[in-house]
Write a structure and sequence with these properties.
The two termini are 37 Å apart. This protein is globular. It has a 6-stranded mixed sheet, sandwiched between helices. A 5-stranded mixed beta barrel has the order 1-2-3-5-4. It has a two-stranded antiparallel ribbon with strand order 6-7. The chain is of the alpha/beta class. It is 27% helix and 26% strand. The protein binds guanosine-5'-triphosphate, magnesium ion and zinc ion. Guanosine-5'-triphosphate binds next to α4.
């Protein structure tokens, strides 16, 4: 039986669109039960590389190749971690300044997941044709000083697009962020032929209306691959050990390392070096707040996972 290897572009209801050797997508199903892994909510995600056999006009997926990296989020409904993209060269956390509103803690969480997964991440501020507040500017400055790359763009006016395009060229990139920030608009600018649907921002609630419903990889000829994902209301990184969390905040890590207390959670322990640094403003109060809230989330995940009998 002829056998091939290709990337998963998207999947729905256990049918997957997989790249064939000539680039055209082939509809594939998973052969038997061999790919079912008990603790995974999503066995195959955009970017996964699979081996598949030709079966008439369709394909049968027989194996998932080892992943170079995988991005995870916590699925609260299922109390389980959920992969949403694999083998990504560059992840973009996309924000807008006012409509929908800028959400620094959302960005902090994306950065933590990307660092934990070993995926380089850039922060993209789209819609800079809109007013950018001083507070927002300050937060972006802070990320820059922490070594994170920032791109300020506007799909509407084209501002910053040339440098941004240059940065993405030749890569498999992922767009993630809240609904309505313009992820699909960015994709459409790079690949108008894809004709992807763009939605409006609700005037009443000042947030997106969840236009994109499926994570999907788009192969953009002579450019690269873009994985566009549905906007999420909340983003919770998954698979992170609460003890390791402080080390994933670049500005908190040095203090966590020097914290004399064994197993310190850096919350309310006396003599905690992190807490002291936050009180002395050596750590930005908002970043420390991000840490505290995320710590609660990953501790809660641990509990939910145990209750459900899932392993780590
Ligand atoms: N002012 C302004 N509006 C923009 C810009 N880019 C996108 N938009 C608008 O923002 C709205 C939402 O865009 P989408 O591309 O659908 O947003 P999304 O992030 O893909 O949203 P979901 O698919 O729901 O996650 C649309 O009305 C776009 O026209 C920009 O640079 N400036
Ligand atoms: Mg979209
Ligand atoms: Zn401490």
């Amino acid at each position: 039986m002829p056998e091939f290897q290709g990337r998963v572009l998207w999947g729905a209801n256990n049918i997957f669109s997989v790249e064939s050797p000539d680039g055209t997508p082939v509809e594939c199903r998973i052969k038997g039960k061999q790919l079912i892994v008990s603790d995974e909510y999503n066995v195959l995600v955009p970017g996964d590389v699979v081996r598949w056999e030709q079966a008439g006009s369709q394909g049968m997926i027989v194996e998932r190749q080892p992943r170079r990296n995988v991005l995870l989020r916590w699925n609260r409904k299922q109390s389980q971690k959920q992969a949403f993209a694999a083998n990504v060269d560059l992840a973009c956390c996309v924000m807008s300044p006012v409509s929908p509103p800028f959400r620094p803690r959302f960005v902090d969480r994306c950065l933590v997941e990307a660092d934990a997964a070993g995926v380089p991440m850039v922060i993209v501020l789209n819609k800079i044709d809109q007013e950018v507040s001083e507070d927002t500017r300050e937060r972006f400055e802070l990320w820059r000083t922490l070594g994170y790359e920032v791109h300020e763009i506007s799909v509407l006016t084209g501002s910053g697009m040339e440098a941004f395009k240059k940065r993405l060229k030749g890569l498999t990139v992922l767009f993630m962020g809240p609904s309505g920030v313009g992820k699909t608009s960015m994709l459409n600018l790079l690949y108008p032929e894809g004709n992807s649907k763009v939605g409006k921002v609700s005037e009443k609630f000042n947030r997106g209306i969840h236009t994109t419903v499926l994570s999907r990889a788009w192969v953009v000829p002579e450019f690269g691959t873009v994985i566009d994902t549905p906007g999420v209301r909340e983003f919770e990184p998954a698979g992170i050990d609460p003890q390791a969390l402080a080390h994933l905040f670049r500005d908190i890590a040095p203090f966590a390392t020097s914290c004399a207390l064994y197993n310190c959670t850096h919350t309310d322990e006396p003599d905690c070096a992190v807490r002291r640094a936050a009180e002395e403003s050596l750590i930005h109060f908002d970043r420390y707040e991000s840490y505290l809230r995320l710590l609660e989330a990953v501790q809660r995940q641990d509990q939910e996972r145990t209750d459900k009998g899932h392993s780590k």
